[in-house]
Amino acid sequence: MRYKVILALFCTPLFAVRMHTAPSPKARDQMPAKAAQIAAPMSEKVLYETLFNRMLNQESRAKKRESEGMDASAIRNKVFDDLALIQSEADILKSIAFDCYLETEELDRHASQIIKEARARIPGGKLNGRPLPECPPILRIMQKQRDDAFLNARLRLKSEFGASRFEVFESQLKFLLEKTMKSR
User: Fold this and answer.
1) Would you list the DSSP string of 51-80?
2) pLDDT at 13 (0 to 100)
3) Which of 44, 105, 119, 133 has its CA 20 to 30 A from that of 163?
4) What is the CA radius of gyration of the chain?
């Protein structure tokens, strides 16, 4: 089910036309100064994992709304509008996020199986005072691969957007996530 939702997240909207007015280049360039003043330190991996999860959640909400016969374009485009992305940038972000999702989803599936097998080796599923078993070494390697998937997605975005536009984008992203976290 989740795979179908994420597939719909990135495939369907790639062809949709967004009906909004993008901010002027001057307005977009002024946003990072404000963001730099407020943004809390957050690892790059967490920053992009959070963004991609937010995109997934918004797409899921949009699909539900559409299934109820309502317009979902505002929900679907919210993150892109909040980040002041033009259509071509939104398309790039969706594509890279989808690729990252596929890579991490496969790693997560494999890790889940390894964890399930490790748990099965514990009689009755309880440690009963015994020490916690060592983490299978492959899980550490897979976690590094998962972290690297998000960092590689970030590098791809930087390459596609160009250094100066990417700097603006990332500042806006930090500002957006900081604002969201403060409101919770």
Assistant:
1) HHHHHHHHHHHHHHHHHTT---HHHHHHHH
2) 37
3) 105
4) 19
Which of 106, 107, 100 is CA-nearest to residue 45? 100
Q: What is the rounded CA–CA span in Å between residue 84 and residue 106?
A: 31
Q: Which two tokens stand for residue 113?
A: 């199986």
What gap in Å lies between CA 106 and CA 98, rounded to an integer?
Answer: 12
Q: How many residues does the chain have?
A: 184
Residue 89 has which token pair? 């940038």
Residue 92's pLDDT is 97
User: At a CB cut-off of 8 Å and minimum separation 6, what does 29 contact?
Assistant: 168
- pTM for the full predicted model: 0.73
Domain residue ranges in the chain: 2-182
